[in-house]
Design a protein that fits this description.
This protein is an alpha+beta fold. The strands form 4 sheets. Strands 12, 14, 15, 16, 17 and 18 form a 6-stranded mixed β-sheet that branches. Strands 2-1-5-4-3 form a 5-stranded antiparallel β-sheet. Strands 7-6-10-9-8 form a 5-stranded antiparallel β-sheet. The chain is elongated, with a radius of gyration of 55 Å.
Length: 630
């Protein structure tokens, strides 16, 4: 069974597909536009509802305030008129010598109106001295502290008083200006009418002016306010219903708009995802034509999208076509969904790939068959990393093996070295035996140095840190090789800051590093040249600083004018046992890198064949306190 018979179609020629269809469609499917009135009507409804609600709120609030103000003014005017009428009656009664019963009858008559709770005369402490039938004599109508705050005078005033268990009372109060009535109360020492209050002590009757109170029933006003509140509630209910309907309509319209926007954004995101996907994507329709080809697939296949879109897969990418036919991804027998293949693309380029095939069926075109989406994952980088890991494992195993061998052969070397020296001492001076014994001693010493390098390479990184000046380290290393430089005729230059502070380093290990770099530089200039050693401090901003007070990195440069290193060899020079010297062990730069990394530093190599090489050691500056905190 062929590939295209499995996906339900036949091959078509590329010429039968219009060029315009060979481009990857990135725009979303156009949606029918929404009528403008449908988008605006919810806003109009909501805005109208809010304006109408605001108008009703202002009208209701204004009506309530106006009704309250009118009621207050009516109560105050009626209370003032009633108080003035009572004072006029008292003046008349005092003139006609009315009895207490007659004065009390007047008070009862005035206080028994339907909308009046009480009418009472009190002293300055609020105790009732005379009142209509609704109040007992001697009771406290107003608390003394409230009386002090009322400050009654000849001007009538009003206030609302809450009465527990009853409707609120509107009190109109004023200072009583009938002096004869007050003197009568002091003279008799009792109240008028049928409710008498016996007061044997006349001195208890106050001498200050009396206060008259009229309490009006506020029930009609509260009922009117309740009616207004019910009316306002009905208004608000209707407006709320209209507003909710408008808001729901707005939500529906906005939901529709969000759905449209989501579809467009999803389409745009999908195409953007295909463009940025690190895996190659090749999609074919039911007829086997390529309908999608993302940039990662272009990179893997080495083909631009416009040359493959709309063409059959077998013609556009024959290497991928052959690889698919060699797998079982399309017959449904592959459980993992991914197979590793090696595709051959244009120019004979062989690329290891992990292939995944996923059927794609469009519901509206299900009867036409399925297309496929192929995912291509480039395994070239993975294979390279795997090879690098295997190489590192082999080097590590070789290092451990070399360390073990070195440890085992050091004792026999010591014995051979001792015997060689013994034969050299007992042989005649200048004879052949003494010369051969000397050669044996030198070779054994060379082998012992190689063994020492092997052990040093396998030794764990443990530093003995101390404060030391970099210039002193450089001076120690240079003194060890100065004779070799003078012998070849190498000119040595040194650049060290005038103020070179001490830094925290392992002095012995860093001396070994500098010594190896200096020896390599000398060996790279067998006919002489210039060797430059440089000490610098670099600041946080990347600029060279005068001293460590302005920097955080110590830079040590060893620069020569020797043969240089080819670019393809620079990455290998730090590998163990790699050397270009006839008698080298290939361990020197490996030890240098190991020691610098133990100091949390880095090595930078810049080399130009025929002009020279510069090794730069980047060492972070650390204080003793920082080191103890690690």
């Amino acid at each position: 069974m062929t590939f295209f018979s499995r996906i339900g179609g036949k091959l078509t020629r590329a010429s039968s597909v219009p060029p315009s269809e060979r481009k990857l469609r990135r725009a979303s499917v156009p949606l029918r536009s929404m009528p403008p009135w449908l988008a605006l009507s919810p806003w109009i409804v909501v805005a109208g509802s809010l304006l109408l609600a605001l108008m009703v709120l202002l009208m209701d609030s204004s009506n309530r305030d106006r009704e309250s103000e009118i009621a207050t003014r009516i109560f105050l005017e009626r209370g003032t008129s009633l108080i003035h009428a009572y004072e006029a009656t008292l003046h008349t009664g005092m003139g006609f010598q009315w009895t207490d019963e007659e004065l009390q009858a007047v008070l009862d008559k005035l206080g028994t109106s339907p909308d009046i709770h009480y009418m009472a005369v009190t002293d300055e402490e609020g105790r009732v001295l005379a009142a209509s039938d609704t109040l007992p004599l001697g009771s406290e109508l107003v608390a003394p502290e409230d009386m002090a705050g009322l400050a009654p005078d000849s001007q009538a005033r009003g206030r609302i008083v809450e009465v527990p268990g009853r409707a609120p009372v509107f009190q109109v109060y004023q200072r009583l200006s009938v002096r004869q009535y007050e003197e009568r109360l002091r003279r008799h020492g009792h109240m008028m009418g049928r409710r008498m209050m016996t007061t044997p002590d006349v001195e208890r009757i106050p001498s200050q002016p009396l206060v008259i109170f009229v309490g009006y029933d506020m029930t009609p006003l509260l009922e009117a306010e309740s009616t207004d509140a019910r009316r306002a509630f009905i208004h608000w209910t209707i407006l709320s219903f209209i507003g909710v309907v408008g808001i729901l309509t707005l939500f529906l319209v906005k939901g529709y708009q969000r759905s449209r926007q989501l579809v467009e954004e999803t389409s745009a995101f999908t195409f953007a995802l295909l463009d940025t996907l690190p895996l190659g994507l090749v999609a074919v329709d039911h007829a086997g034509r390529i309908t999608a080809f993302n940039p990662a697939a272009e990179r893997i296949a080495g083909l631009p999208a416009d040359t493959v879109l709309g063409r059959p897969l077998s013609e556009a990418i024959p290497g991928l076509w052959s690889a698919l036919n060699d797998t079982d991804l399309l017959n449904g027998q592959n459980d993992t969904g991914e197979q590793e293949v090696r595709c051959v693309f244009e120019g004979g380029r062989r690329v290891p790939l992990a292939l995944t095939a996923t059927p794609v069926t469009v519901p509206s075109r299900e009867e036409q068959g399925s297309g496929y989406a192929f995912m291509l994952r480039d395994l070239g980088e993975i294979r390279r990393l795997q090879a690098e890991i295997r190489r590192q494992d082999r080097l590590a195993a070789l290092g451990h093996l070399a360390a073990g061998i070195a440890h085992e052969i050091r004792n026999p070397l010591s014995a051979i070295k001792g015997l060689a020296r013994f034969f050299q001492e007992i042989s005649p001076e200048g004879g052949e035996e003494a010369r051969v014994a000397g050669i044996m001693t030198q070779e054994v010493q060379r082998l012992d140095n190689v063994v020492g390098d092997l052990l040093e390479l396998a030794r764990p990184d443990k530093l003995n840190l101390s404060m030391i000046s970099p210039s002193l380290l450089l001076e120690r290393a240079v003194n060890l090789v100065r004779a070799d430089m003078d012998k070849i005729g190498i000119q040595y230059d040194q650049e060290v800051p005038e103020v070179c502070p001490e830094v925290l380093l392992d002095a012995d290990r860093m001396t070994q590093v500098l010594l190896n770099l200096l020896l390599n530089a000398i060996q790279a200039m067998p006919g002489g040249g210039r060797l430059t050693a440089r000490v610098r401090f670099r600041s946080h901003s990347g600029e060279d600083a005068a001293d460590s007070g302005y920097g955080d990195t110590l830079l040590l440069d060893i620069e020569d004018t020797g043969e240089g290193i080819p670019k393809d060899k620079i990455q290998q020079i730090f590998s163990p046992y790699y050397t270009t010297k006839a008698r080298g062990t290939g361990l020197g730069l490996s030890l240098v890198q190991k020691i610098i990394e133990a100091h949390d530093g880095e090595i930078e190599v810049v080399s130009t064949p025929g002009k020279g090489t510069r090794f730069t050691l980047h060492l972070p500056l650390r204080s003793p306190a920082q080191e103890e905190g690690k």
